[in-house]
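Progress report, Aim 2. The chain analyzed during this reporting quarter is listed below.
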Amino acid sequence: MLKLEKVATHYGDVQALQNVSFKVEEGQVVSIIGSNGSGKSTTLNTISGVLRCSSGNIIFNNKRINQAPPHQIVEVGIVQVPEGRKLFPYMTVYENLKLGSFNSRGRKVLKESIQEAFNYFPILEERRNQIAGTLSGGEQQMLAIGRGLMAKPKLLM
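Predicted structure tokens for the chain:
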């Protein structure tokens, strides 16, 4: 499903990733572990197109996505739940979830996806009209994951 081949990423002149290679098969759960500064977030940001890889290949479902912008990467089915939640704090839970379905797959099944998010996280249904910034930290994390699921990803990071 996802394959990284000798990926390198730089921040200006500083190399953050060097020769990163791994595969994720459909149905697998994969963890990237390491100490602070070891490249975990940089790896995810490179896969999702937020950062460009300097060399190597990123292949998703047999298609090279190295140079694709983030919105195209979401369209092919890769969704990243951002570190630190990155919610829209002055919008409601419902509005935040709805924003997650902006891609073509998500728009087609908006009502079903919202109900699915509420099934995963029942507290969000109770708080559907609450302003997201007033949720507890755990509830905000549930909302961030629910928003990511709204895009109907093939791969959730």
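DSSP finds seven helices and six strands in the chain. Residues 2-76 form a domain with the Rossmann fold fold (CATH 3.40.50.300). These observations will guide the mutagenesis work planned for the next reporting period.
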